[in-house]
Amino acid sequence: METEKSSGVILLVVEEPAPESIVEALAAAGWEVRTCRPEELAGCLEQEAVHGVVVRVGAEAEPACLQTLRMVQAEAPRPVLLLTEAEPMRLAVALAQTGWLTAAAPDQRETAQRWAQQLAASAVTPAAERLRQARRELSRLNHDLKNPLAIISGNAQFLHELIRLRGGDAELEGPVADIEEACRQLHVLLQRLIALRDTLPG
């Protein structure tokens, strides 16, 4: 079954032909994979609409790639997955502290696939998630308003009935009627709030 590709591009930086296992892991997560050599990295990042970068190069080329990424990331931050055999270096630590570098052993296909899936999820769900959060917030707001409104409305009805049983009181009937009318208006507004909530994804 063919995985539907997203509109995003992941740039795979390699010195040799790209490892098929890594390419397959990224493609399986729905990304278009484009490759480049370390010396082409800066130019590719300027020309391509890249959502993420995977670096799979030897220890000698890693520092140059990371230095290039460090300069480019200041203007256009992208998630980076560093597939490395080398010991962590100061530059890699500096990149990781920014929150957009993930490091793994070179042949960890599962790590590459999980990273790519998380990137895909973050690229396509923020708007939908914000709408779901708005729906939940509207539900909470409706619940929080209905309770005090019910208390006000119930007490207004109680006062109205009390005035009637005592033979009426012109001074109190007007304010109580105003409270009851305000409660009806608030109830209509709450119904509109729920109608708006129901237009959002659950």
What features would you describe in this structure?
The protein is α/β, with parallel strands linked by helices. The chain folds into two domains: 9-124, Rossmann fold, CATH 3.40.50.2300; 127-197. It has seven helices and five strands. It has helices at residues 20-28, 41-47, 62-73, 90-97, 109-124, 126-165, 170-197, and strands spanning 9-14, 32-36, 50-56, 80-83, 101-104. A five-stranded parallel sheet has the order 2-1-3-4-5, with helices on both faces. Strand 1, helix 1 (20-28) and strand 2 (32-36) form a beta-alpha-beta unit. Helix 6 (126-165) packs antiparallel against helix 7. The model has no long low-confidence stretch (mean pLDDT 83).
**In the residues, how many domains can be counted?**
2
Report the CATH superfamily of the largest domain. Response regulator
The average pLDDT score comes to 83
Taking the alpha carbons of the first and last residues, their distance comes to: 29 Å
SSE topology string:
EHEHEHEHEHHH
Q: What gross morphology would you assign?
A: rod-shaped
CATH topology of the largest domain: Rossmann fold
Helix and strand content put the structural class at alpha/beta
Largest sheet: 5 strands, parallel
